[in-house]
Amino acid sequence: MCSAIIVAALAASFPFAAGAATISAGQAHVVTVGEQTAVVYFTRAQSGFSVVTTLAAEGRPATRLVHELADGQTALLQAEGAVGAAPATVRLTRAGDALKVETAGGKSARAD
Q: Quick one: which of 21, 1, 3 has its CA closest to 91?
């Protein structure tokens, strides 16, 4: 419980003006996180949303992250950049029947 509160506090503290999108179940969204490209989508699961993020960069194996989010919960993804620069950050927040994808320090584009 304590770690959930810390994650929520950290999520609320980041400015996310760079890009935002709201997606529906089964709809993909592409974001740039540092030097990696990420594809985000979700499906409905018994315990909430199963949010799947696949990160890939040229010459490196892909990484898949899966988060189970209940309504109102948030997950953060960060990639470090240059020394002294703020990390590229993606905030994934479940809002009712949709998922809000917000980026800071990266690019965002819907993949319809």
A: 21
Q: How many domains does the chain have?
A: 1
Q: Where are the alpha helices (DSSP H) in 2-63?
A: 2-13
- Residue located via tokens 């960060």: 78
Whether the CB-CB separation of 12 and 5 falls below 8 Å is answered with no
Q: Are 66 and 55 in contact (CB under 8 A)?
A: no
Global pTM reads: 0.73
Look at residue 43 in the predicted model and tell me its pLDDT.
94
Q: Which residues form the domain of 75?
A: 2-111
Give CB contacts under 8 A, 24+ apart, made by 41-48: 42/69, 42/99, 48/73, 48/94
Query: What number of other Cβ atoms are within 10 A of residue 47's Cβ?
Result: 9
Task: Look at residue 16 and tell me whether its pLDDT is greater than 50.
Answer: no
Cβ contact 29:22 at 8 Å: no
If one counts every other C-beta atom within 10 angstroms of the C-beta of residue 25, the result is: 13
